[in-house]
Design a protein that fits this description.
Layout: E1 24-29, H1 34-42, H2 44-48, E2 53-58, H3 62-70, E3 76-80, H4 81-89, E4 94-103, E5 108-110, E6 126-129, H5 134-145, E7 154-157, H6 160-168, E8 174-176, H7 181-189, E9 192-195, E10 204-209, H8 210-215, H9 217-236, H10 238-249, H11 253-263, E11 264-265, H12 274-278
Parallel strand pairs: 1-2, 6-7, 6-8
Antiparallel strand pairs: 3-10, 4-10, 4-11, 5-8, 5-9
Helix pairs in contact: 1-9, 1-10, 6-7, 9-10, 10-11
């Protein structure tokens, strides 16, 4: 499809907000949050906030984004729902302002030549996952469902990308993965998803610090509006969205398409509610 132009970018005609002057808006982008990649690529925030410098900060995972928020390094951060709720419970002064997707971005993964068929076959084995993220909570829930606990495995705390590498090199027996790393491992290394459960995946949350929300409510509304437009843009432009993801994540187009088309739902309502919390 043709490259998206400035006139087709989400928020291209948005008006300037009426909050106190904001010199710099610091917002993260992440390969697990395609709407953030669309906004960054198309310059939507820059167009909507002409008097504000937009600083994009890369988040490698939920724990990364939450640390940035707690350290006041960013104003908005993208996380899985479980990670955000746990961080809030532990004193991080954040609130969820938007739901950017309903994903199936994590599953239990083994190497192509593994004989394991389910989590019970991995008792006593090494399983990697990044602590405090959705893949970690997915692993715990999967173990619990099988009547097991973390004590029944050799848990290895690794960042998402390193977990993939460890699996493919035979350094761990399984990995609770995260897309796009998981999709890439499937398509490029033949890795297998031996357990999937969409209900064990929490929603994609956009979070902000409470002090920022109090001071800049109109800017927050504008960011939410632009995220909503970006979600709709992805639905209307799947090829363009896949190319943006492929370019930003440095993955091939087929991997990007698998993540977007098979594992993500961008039609879920964006306003947080009881259903999201219950998950």
């Amino acid at each position: 499809m043709p490259a998206p132009s400035a006139t087709t970018a989400p928020g291209a005609s948005a008006a300037v907000v009426a909050d106190p002057a904001l010199a710099e808006l610091r917002i993260d982008y992440a390969t697990y949050s395609p709407p953030s990649l669309v906004l960054k690529k198309l310059g939507s925030l820059e167009q909507a906030l002409p008097g504000t410098t937009v600083k994009w900060v890369y988040s490698a995972g939920s724990s990364n984004a939450l640390n940035f928020l707690q350290g006041n390094s960013i104003d908005f951060g993208s996380t899985a729902g479980s990670a955000a709720l746990l961080s809030r419970a532990n004193g991080n002064p954040i609130k969820v302002v938007y739901i950017y997707e309903q994903p199936e971005w994590t599953a239990l993964v083994v190497a192509k030549d593994s004989t394991a068929k389910d989590i019970r076959d991995l008792k006593g084995k090494k399983i990697a996952a990044q602590k405090g993220t959705d893949p970690y909570f997915f692993l715990l829930r999967t173990l619990n469902q099988a009547g097991l606990s973390q004590a029944d495995i050799q848990y290895v705390n690794l960042p998402h990308a390193d977990g993939r590498t460890a699996l493919e090199r035979g350094q761990v027996d399984a990995w609770s993965g995260l897309d796009p790393h998981m999709a890439a491992s499937e398509l490029q290394a033949g890795s297998r998803l031996i357990y999937r459960n969409k209900d064990f995946n929490t929603y994609g949350f956009l979070n902000s610090r409470e002090d920022f929300l109090r001071k800049y409510p109109e800017t927050t509304k504008k960011v939410i509006e632009l995220y909503e437009r970006a979600k709709k843009w992805i639905v209307d432009n799947p090829e363009g969205a896949a190319q943006i993801l492929a370019d930003e994540a440095q993955i091939n187009l087929e991997v990007a398409k698998r993540e977007l088309n098979d594992r993500m739902n961008f039609k879920t309502p964006g306003i947080p509610g009881d259903a999201h919390v219950s998950v």
